[in-house]
Every structure is written in structure tokens, then in C-alpha cells.
Amino acid sequence: MSKRSIPNVDWANQLENAIRQFVKEKLELIMREEIKNFLEIEQAGTPNMRNGYYQRNLDTQYGRIEGLLVPRDRNGEFQTQLFAPYQRHTGWLEEAIIRMYQSGMSTREIGKFIERILGSTYSPATISRITDVVKEDIEKWHARPLHQRYSVLYLDGLYVKLRRDTVEKEVIYVVLGVNEEGYREILDFFVGGQESAYVWQEILQQLYKRGVKEVLLGVFDGLPGLEEAFKAVYPKADVQRCVVHKVRNTLSRVRKKDQFEMAEDLKLIYRSPNKEIALEMFQQFQSKWSHKYPREVQSWANELDVLLTFMDYPSSIRSVIYTTNAIERTIKEIRKRLKPMNSLSSLEAAEKVVYLTIQDFNEKWAGRKLRGFAEAQEALQRMFEERYC
Fold first, then answer.
1. What role does this protein play (predicted)?
2. DSSP letters for 302-370
3. What is the pTM of this model?
């Protein structure tokens, strides 16, 4: 450390000490007023009176306050409202730990951070126990009742490294719903195993039991068996295969020199103003590319119905239902929060981080309709009435 930097460190330490002393004085002032009111009002007419002080330490967001003078009464009945009798730190610590955990810090990193600011050692096990306060919230959230109608259900997942004796990649399933008024909400998530249509069907069945009875459209990628699993739970709903996923998969099998041209030709299909023109554009695409890439073109022909479902819906929402982009942004943020952890120590650790991330999204979306759904609301209501009434 250079000589020039030493005065800066001393000044910073002096400032921290001054702040802690100021907070200590104010806390003691509040407690003196508390016991004064307690004895004057609640203990009027009794022989109870003040009986000095006892000292204790208290960890705060300003650091550790040592030797805090807590007043006491002769009968031992007074209790300050600033903290519980055996509380050694204010509630900020739990909240800070949970927020740090949510941001992707490991329990070990959080422990080191707390040790730096408070001088106390918090083991990874202690940090984990503090973050366990959200476990009950998670259980209640998984069981909460849901709306009856959802215009769209988006299904998607991401793989994360999860430790169960050994570290392996496992999937996090995520369901995003847009209700009949156009508001988004993550309805549920499930952590574990390899992605399968069977598990997706179980998740959808749970949503049905929790109240999601009527759905117009399911939007997801081309996982084998997923369309059948979705229709098994919601037989009256339409299916939209993610066009963006399909385009990417197609172009990955095309020679590099042809990729741009084919991508432009595919845009003419899914960006057509209506289905009739889209079918005409596909005929041209088929004639142009079938000879050179017969399997790729045939794949589009086989799936064209579920790739163009979105064109049966109001034009104002087509740009947000022909792809899973609406949920992929959420998936990207979950992955970002999990990335610093390298691998998750347990299934419970993964659930805590995903749950806290999802709550941020749901709070943000609560007062904001998804683009285009306000204009499409009447048309979507008619579609619900035609299918389910």
C-alpha cells in the first residue's frame, strides 16, 4: 500500500466509526424515550421504576455497534421495540443475504462478504439456513390458485449444473402465462432431470388442477412429444411451434453460403400479412430449395400448420406469439443469476434462486400488459366463448 493511500483509509475508518457512533446515540435516545413512556403510561400506579442499563452488541447495516446501552426496569417487563430480546442483528442482514443469494453469489462468497463488513464469521451452512426462510414461501407459491383463462401459455426450459453426489446438467422447466386481460405471469417452475414431454404433461396437469381450465394457445419449441402432451391436458387449445427455433435449426443444417438467402426467403413466409400469402411464399420456397435441401424443406412442409398457427390470431399479438421470445428473456435472466454459482449445491439451492428471480419478474409485470393484447382483447374473448362455452 502506498503512503498516499494510508490517509484515505484512516479517513474512511474515522467516517465509519462516526456513523456507528451517531447510530448508537440515536438508538439509545429512542430506547430512553421508550422506557420513559412505558413507565409513565403502562406502569402508572405501580412501584416499578428504572433500573439502569445492560450492554449488548448489535449488527446493523452500518457495521457492528458495540456496548449499546439498553435500559431496563426493576420488574423486568420493559422490552424495546427496536429489536427482540435475543436478537443480535437487525432484519437488514437476512434481507441482504437473500438478495445477494438471489443475485447469484454463493453461500461461501456471502459469508466472506458478511465477515468483511461485520467482522463475524458466517458459515455457508448458516447462510443457507437464513435463505431457507423462502422455502415456505416457495411451497405456498407452487400451490396458489391461478386464473381460469389464459390466452397463451409459453413453455421453455434451461439446463443448469446441479450437484447430487456428482455434478450433472439438469433442466429447469418454466411456464409463463398471459391471462385473458393480457398480463404476464410466471405460473410455475420445476427443477430436475432431463427435459421430457412426460414431465411437461405432469406440470400442465398440476396447472389444470390449480384452476387453469381454459387456454387458447400453447407456444413452445419442437421437443418430441410435447405437442401431444399439451393437447392431452388442453385438447381445445391451439399449438404454435416456435418459428425462431425452427429457423435456427434449419439454417444450422444449411451450407454457410446459402444461409442468408434462405433466411430471407423464410422471412417472406412467417412475416406475410395473412396465411394465404404465407402459403404462397412457402410454395415458392419449396420450389427453390427442395432440390438442394430436400430434408430441410420437407421438415417445414410437415410442420407448416403448427408454424403458422399464429396467423389465426389478431394481428396485434402475432409478433409475440410466433416465438418463445417472451419467455426466453426470463430464461436468460435466470441463467444469468445462476451462472456465478458455477454449479448449484442442491436442488433446494436452485429452487430458491429461481423463485426469487421469478418474483422480481412477476412484480414488474403486474401492472403492464404484454404488447398488443389490449387491442386483441375483444377478439380473444370471442375465441374463448366459441371454444369453451
1. Required for the transposition of the insertion element.
2. HHHHHHSGGGGS-GGGHHHHSSSHHHHHHHHHHHHHHGGGSSBS-HHHHHHHHHHHHHHHHHHHTT-BP
3. 0.70
Q: Which residues lie below 8 Å from residue 100, measured CB to CB, with a gap of 6+? A: 109, 110, 113
E-assigned strand segments in 165-312: 166-179, 184-191, 214-220, 238-241
Interval 279-291: pLDDT, tens? 999 999 999 999 9
pLDDT tens, 233-270?
A: 999 999 999 999 999 999 999 999 999 999 999 999 99
Measured between its terminal Cα atoms, the distance across the chain in Å is 76
For the sheet containing 184-191, what is the strand order? 184-191, 166-179, 149-164, 214-220, 238-241
| Rounded distance between C-alpha atoms, residue 378 and residue 248, angstroms | 34
Q: What pairing do the DSSP bridges indicate for beta strands 149-164 and 50-60?
A: unpaired
d(CA 277, CA 65): 73
C-alpha cell, 333: 435472466
Q: Is there a contact between 94 and 107 (Cβ–Cβ < 8 Å)? A: no
- In whole angstroms, what is the distance from residue 225 CA to residue 242 CA? 15
| 64 backbone φψ class: left, alpha, beta (φ>0; ψ -120 to 50) | beta
**360: Cβ–Cβ under 8 A, 6 or more apart, which residues?**
102
Residue type at position 166: T
Strand partners, 157: 173
Return the domain boundaries, the chain.
Answer: 1-79, 146-388
DSSP secondary structure, 68-91, as one string? EEEEEETTS----SSS-TT--B-T
The single-letter DSSP state of residue 148 is S
Between β-strands 50-60 and 63-73, what pairing exists: parallel, antiparallel or unpaired? antiparallel
Q: How many helices (H) and strands (E) does the chain have?
A: 15, 7
Which grid coordinates are listed for 312? 389465426
Angle at 78 between CA 74 and CA 81, to 5 degrees: 160
Which whole number is the average pLDDT over 95-115? 61
Residue labelled with grid coordinates 411451497: 139
**88 pLDDT above the threshold of 70:** no
